TrEMBL record:
Residues 1-32 have a biased composition (Polar residues). This is ABC transporter domain-containing protein. Residues 1-43 are annotated as: Disordered. Pfam families: ABC_tran, BCA_ABC_TP_C. Keywords: ATP-binding, Nucleotide-binding, Transport. Residues 52-298 form the ABC transporter domain. The keyword ATP-binding applies. The keyword Membrane does not apply.
């Protein structure tokens, strides 16, 4: 397989596998993307190294079934995209898995630990952390304070430390150092004293990701990370997501941007009307008849992966525009 790598606005690199059946960033034959090679692309297929395993999760709103997932396994160390037309149940499913909503039925495990019935805070402490859009309150804090606040959800934080000044002083210094290091990685260090609300759409998304990293997650769950992002920064964001995977993190993301999905996902799971209708490597899944039907049934104008954004000329112009912001 030949890889095509491409630098982004901030130096991160997007690696585009030219053969989707053989993903990149492999560690050994069962874990990470390599473990997905050759798997049967059928809904509910077992993965060789599953970090999350979901069974019979049902969520109804009145008489309407929003989520009805029989079985899903998420491969450790890989990037899995969760896609589907509007109203398919993706966000509800995310909310259920992360303890922000309660199912009518079902159970699921993260790294062997049962999560059903656990609060959102307890789920986050297990290492499954989701990103959130910056709220109004957070927008009024500086970028650095946003990062420091995110660290308070860290499993290592405890009452003992917070009661003794020498301990919390030391901890505060460590947290600030870590925050600056992560901000540097996302090229947000120069913005550390700016209000988060003053950042561009793409920079906000980077900050959301940076905040999640303050808790050292095992799995990061991103809800539409590319939404509202300038196309020049999309490239950069994609590079960062791949870098997290290459460091061994598991990524699960909900996304409408099919360009993003096609170019960074190792595996794609498709939901429609609450159910998983297909899963498999990105190239194959986009051609799956059940997927085409689900999208055509929902909205006819969906772009299932436009490569125009990878045109160097288009990119150069967009990057120049982003620089001016
Ligand atoms: N709190 C709620 N009360 C009633 N119905 C809800 C609630 N939340 C979601 N729904 C319904 O459940 C279904 C699934 O919604 P959900 O937001 O999970 O879909 P989605 O795939 O994330 O859609 P989108 O891509 O548009 O964000 C929709 O029909 C929605 O109207």
């Amino acid at each position: 397989m030949a890889d095509d790598t491409q630098p982004t606005t901030d130096g991160a690199t997007v690696t585009r596998p030219t053969d989707a059946s053989a993903p990149t960033g492999t560690q050994n034959s069962t874990t990470g993307p390599a473990g997905l090679v050759g798997l049967e692309p059928t809904p509910g297929v077992a993965k060789p190294d599953s970090l999350m395993v979901v069974d019979d999760v049902l969520r109804k709103f009145g008489g309407m079934t929003a989520v009805d997932v029989k079985h899903l396994e998420v491969q450790r160390g890989a990037i899995t995209a969760l896609i589907g037309p509007n109203g398919a149940g993706k966000t509800t499913f995310f909310n259920l898995l992360t303890g922000f909503d309660v199912p009518d039925n079902g159970h699921w495990k993260f790294d062997g630990q049962p999560l059903a019935g656990k609060s959102a805070a307890r789920v986050a402490r297990t290492g499954a952390v989701r990103t959130f859009q910056l709220t109004k309150a957070l927008s009024r804090l500086t970028v650095l304070d946003n990062m420091r606040l995110a660290a308070t959800q860290h499993p290592g934080e405890n009452l003992f430390t917070s009661l003794f000044q020498p301990l919390w002083k030391k901890r505060e210094a460590e947290v600030t150092e870590k925050a600056l290091e992560i901000l540097g990685r996302f090229k947000l260090d120069t913005k550390k004293d700016d209000f988060a609300g003053s950042l561009s759409g793409g920079q906000r998304k980077l900050l959301e990701m940076a905040r999640a990293l303050m808790t050292d997650p095992t799995m990061i769950m991103l809800d539409e990370p590319m939404a509202g992002v300038n196309p020049a920064l999309v490239q950069s964001l994609l590079g960062h997501v791949q870098a997290l995977r290459d460091e061994g993190m598991t990524v699960l993301f909900v996304e409408h941007d099919m360009h993003a999905v096609r170019h960074i996902s190792d595996w794609v799971v498709v939901m429609a009307e609450g159910r998983i209708v297909a899963e498999g490597p990105p190239e194959g899944v986009m051609k799956d008849q059940a997927v085409v039907d689900a999208y055509l049934g929902a909205h006819h104008d969906t772009d299932l992966g436009d490569d125009a954004l990878l045109d160097p000329e288009v990119l150069k112009r967009l990057e120049a525009e982003e620089e001016k912001r």
